[in-house]
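Hey, can you fold this one?
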Amino acid sequence: MAKIKSIKELIFQYFKSAGLEDKFEQYYALAYWQKVVGKEIARHTEPFRVQDGVIFVQVDSDVWRTELQYMKPEIIEKLNHELKKTVIQDIKFY
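Sure. Predicted structure:
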């Protein structure tokens, strides 16, 4: 019996065949944002774009922006861990 693939698998297969696998994986980082940073930080941030390994994140205050700058390496590491490969290189906070 043939294995039925999930929609996620089918979409990923399509992007892979079109040579867009890396871009697709980057967008997963947006989906994992809240899981990685937690609810408290997620309430103060909104990732709005990912491009060339960089996530762009809107932050609701200068205090949070400063705090997140110190946490950036840890957040990048956790995102890449969730993605199971190094996809995200940097985070830009605005």
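Helices lie at 7-17, 21-44, 62-83. Let me know if you want another pass with a different chain boundary.
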